[in-house]
Write a structure and sequence with these properties.
This protein has 571 residues and is of the alpha/beta class. It has 3 domains: 285 residues, Ribonuclease Z/Hydroxyacylglutathione hydrolase-like (Metallo-beta-lactamase, Chain A, 4-Layer Sandwich), CATH 3.60.15.10; 148 residues, Metallo-hydrolase/oxidoreductase (Rossmann fold, 3-Layer(aba) Sandwich), CATH 3.40.50; 95 residues, Ubiquitin-like (UB roll), CATH 3.10.20.580. Helices cover 31% and strands 23% of the residues. The protein is built from 16 helices and 27 strands. It has an 8-stranded mixed beta sheet with strand order 7-6-5-3-2-1-21-22. It has a 7-stranded mixed beta sheet with strand order 8-9-10-11-12-19-20. A 6-stranded parallel beta sheet has the order 15-14-16-13-17-18, sandwiched between helices. Helix 4 packs across helix 8 and helix 6 runs parallel beside helix 7. The longest helix has 20 residues. The radius of gyration is 30 Å and the shape is globular.
């Protein structure tokens, strides 16, 4: 038997660590999960997942459609992120528009503290939104970065940001470098050669990514139906200057409050032509305050109050106001309908709508325009006057960007299905079309490999309705009831079920129901109650016996189908 060496080590009794074998990059799969922003314009949020790490891009809201009475805003469902919260390594914000950051006051409190990255203006606007909801910004890890920053997020993601011109300063696209390959996410953009702030798109980075090789391009498709080029902000600034120069009375201008470049153009034109500037409307004042504090907006003199404007000659007055979408309570609507407490529009005044209606708002905007004409104002609005330009790229710009990137796969984003489809058709006619184009929907799980891009699964997605202080407690069924009440009204019947039953009827939003109709409804109800008592039915059965005959009677007597609510009490 051989002798054991004195310095020999004993075999370790520790159990070996359960280490995950390293996976070759070429075998990896990148999951891309849009939770908002696909097939719609609004509530943009996209999830990128590789193995056990998640990167999130944006967190926006959408505005309600006409068939959503009472709903204030829509936010994306993030059940998937809540279930996988521990995997989230970073959250990148492309810019400060509501459809990209407006949902965050509702989304962030559902999740643990996550590093958020955004430009100075983007985070300034986000801080303002959080404070508005009574949330302390210090509760979150907000990291200001330049629009051309390179970020290392977790083990698998490197995000190379690049500036893109848009209708707000500090807007970025993203080159997302992953073990699978490079993904270019354009963010919202147009290729403006003469932006108001002089900061053009940094297309060198895009071209470099294209030279390296891009596996997937995710691109803004908002204006994929529009031929040509989107006009420059410099052209809009000239048109605004000319309109303000020719105005004789007071000038009122409305535009999106977040369009800092446009607001700056209006202020410069006003100063050039000897007009003092006031702002009116909560969002306009809020955005201007943040932009002034951060140095994105400059005023040679100062901003005046609406009270001060009363004592200034009409030809020296310019008011920047909210209400570009015809919102009933916004400043422009109150001016148009004579409901503003401090200002009024009179004959000889000029009103400039430096915006275009968001789909669904056309009727409201047209109503305001007609009312302003009725007051004798000179009203300037697109397309008759060149006082507005989109912040999104048209077909020639989309072609140019696609040619720089020359991706293997393509996914149109930020648009309704018609925009996505038109962009698909556009790239398919390019000299080097993508190998595959996928038109995704919210909730799709797309797997990207070196060889393919395909839908493999679904996660819960959609919208939560925000109504007042309630989030998610308004359902499609409740909206259907609201639509029904709006269409045909409501009839409420209160009855005391006893040997001498009593019935009261109240209707709202129904026909102008006189005593005769109400008396007939009471008669039908009394017959049902009396019959139910005689047959010893339960209160619930009697309620049904009241509901259905009244429903039939009202429909036959009026041709309408209001909501019927019978409330029965036992003596």
């Amino acid at each position: 038997m051989s002798e054991k060496p004195q310095n020999a080590k004993r075999p370790s009794r520790r159990r070996p660590r359960n280490r995950r074998p390293k996976q070759p990059a070429s075998l990896g799969k990148l999951q891309i999960i849009p939770l908002g922003g696909m097939g719609e314009i609004g509530k943009n949020i996209t999830v990128f997942r590789f193995q056990d790490e998640i990167l999130v891009v944006d967190g926006g809201l959408a505005f309600p459609e006409e068939n959503m009475p009472g709903v204030d805003i829509l936010i994306p469902r993030i059940d998937y992120l809540v279930e996988n919260a521990r995997l989230i390594k970073g959250w990148v914000l492309t810019h400060g528009h509501e459809d990209h950051i407006g949902g965050l006051p509702f989304l962030l409190p559902q999740l643990p503290k996550i590093p958020l990255y955004g430009a100075k203006l983007t985070l300034g606007l986000l801080r303002g939104k959080l404070e508005e909801f009574g949330i302390k910004p210090s509760e979150f890890e907000l990291n200001p970065v330049s629009p051309d920053e390179t970020l290392k997020i977790g083990r698998f993601f490197t995000v190379d940001m690049f500036r893109m011109t848009h209708s707000i300063p500090d807007n970025s696209g993203l080159i997302i470098r992953t073990p699978v390959g490079n993904v270019v996410h354009t963010g919202d953009f147009k290729l403006d050669p003469t932006p108001v702030d002089g900061k053009v798109s940094h297309l060198t980075k895009v071209a470099q990514a294209g030279a390296e090789g891009v596996l997937l391009l995710i691109s803004d498709s908002t204006n994929a139906e529009r031929p040509g080029l989107t006009p420059s902000e410099a052209d809009v600034a000239k048109a605004l200057d000319a309109a303000i120069a020719s105005a004789e009375g007071r000038v009122f201008v409305t535009t999106f409050a977040s369009h800092i470049h446009r607001v700056q153009s209006v202020i410069r034109a006003a100063e050039r032509h000897g007009r003092k500037v006031a702002m009116d409307g909560r969002s306009m004042l809020k955005f201007a305050k943040i932009a002034l504090e951060l140095g994105y907006l400059k005023v040679a003199d100062r901003l005046y109050t609406t009270e001060e404007m009363r004592n200034i000659p009409d030809n020296e007055v310019l008011v920047l106001a909210t209400g570009s979408q015809g919102q009933p309570m916004a400043v422009l609507s109150r001016l148009a309908f004579g409901r503003h407490a401090k200002l009024s529009v009179a004959e000889g005044d000029t009103v400039i709508l430096s915006s275009s209606p968001i789909p669904g708002n056309e009727e409201a905007v047209n109503l305001v325009i007609n009312k302003l004409y009725q007051l004798g104002a000179r009203v300037l609005y697109p397309p008759a006057y060149k006082v507005h330009a989109s912040g999104h790229a048209s077909q020639e710009e989309l072609r140019f960007l696609y040619n720089l990137v020359q991706p293997k796969f393509f996914m149109p984003w930020h648009g309704e299905i018609r925009h996505q489809t038109n962009f698909k058709w556009l790239v398919e006619k390019m000299p080097k079309p993508p190998q595959k184009t996928v038109i995704a929907e919210n909730g799709d799980v797309l797997e990207l490999t070196a060889d393919d891009l395909k839908k493999t699964a679904r996660v819960k997605a959609g919208a939560l309705y925000v109504d007042g202080l309630g989030v998610g407690d308004i359902t499609d069924d409740i909206l259907a009831e609201r639509q029904e009440m709006a269409a045909d009204g409501i009839v409420i019947l209160t009855a005391l079920v006893s040997q001498k039953p009593l019935v009261e009827v109240v209707s709202r939003g129904f026909v102008k129901a006189g005593q005769r109709l109400h008396a007939e409804i009471r008669r039908v109800a009394l017959e049902a109650i009396t019959r139910g008592l005689r047959e010893k039915k339960s209160l619930e059965q009697i309620r049904d016996d009241v509901y259905y005959p009244i429903k039939r009677f009202v429909r036959k007597a009026t041709g309408r189908d209001p909501i019927i609510i019978p409330i029965l009490f036992e003596a």
